[in-house]
Hints:
It comes from Paenibacillus chitinolyticus. By secondary structure, this protein is mostly helical. It has helices at 2-12, 30-50. The protein is built from two helices and no strands. It is elongated.
Amino acid sequence: xxxNRNEQISQLIPIGKNEDVEFSSEEADAEDLEALQRANAADxxxxxxxx
Length: 51
């Protein structure tokens, strides 16, 4: 019974599908650069709110 329960639980646990990737400015297109600017602006806003 315990084995069946463990199997059911393991089916419910999400499996990570994201990979840790490094940003490459050489391979970045215009959308990547725009996203980077938005992310930096969001980081700046968060830092100002935290102070």
